[in-house]
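Async update (no meeting this week)

Hi team, since we skipped the sync, here's where things stand on the single-chain job. The sequence we agreed to prioritize is pasted below, unchanged from the tracker. I ran it this morning and attached the output directly underneath so nobody has to dig for it. Comments welcome in thread, and please keep replies under the output.
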Amino acid sequence: MTRLQIVVLLFPNVTQLDMTGPAQVFSHFPDTDVHLAWHNLEPVTTDCGWSIVPTVTLDQAPQADLLFVPGGRGAFELFEDAVALDFLRTQAAGARWVTSVCTGSFTLAAAGLLAGKRATSHWASMSMLSEFGCEPVGERVVQDGNVITGAGVTSGMDFALTVAATIFGEDVARRIQLMIEYDPAPPFDAGSPTTADPAFVDDMKQKMRTELLPLIAKVLGRE
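Output:
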């Protein structure tokens, strides 16, 4: 039986939970290898200040069955990394599934992989996906053909369990969910823009647009 190959694009300033949440779920997939790919094998600094070590270089990465891009500030810094974007295009051409969590969808979009697709991202940046010809969808997990995108940060767990059910069946996904005791009960009802203080929502959304729109305009040649 051929083992499933998951290739994760690791990059500086990645939001670590975008990557490590799904990776924890991936680690329980049957007959699966997970590869963390970057330009070299030096430790990569996350948004938390500590580092994660790649397992393979971009040149050495196998062809992915499932290509995965997490998010974070670094996802936008990748807009100017032609090698990384070409890597995504090449991998996506042969992958069964092209996926992301949080603002990783913007990296896929910058590589030209989401045009005409329904996709999601972190709630505060999601609407800006339309700049790339995507249809933003405000759901935790969105599937459009072989493209599966997850919303912000913690939705990566929902995303990865959805992937597990899609590839291996619901029983496998349920067993993984039980194994990792994924049964969230947050202390505050403030994890969504529909329930949080509207002032917080407006402030975060404006800050995100101010920070990201110039980067998006630059990659689209609209400066």
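Quick observations from my side:
The chain has seven helices and eleven strands.
The longest helix spans residues 198-219.
Reply here if anything looks off.
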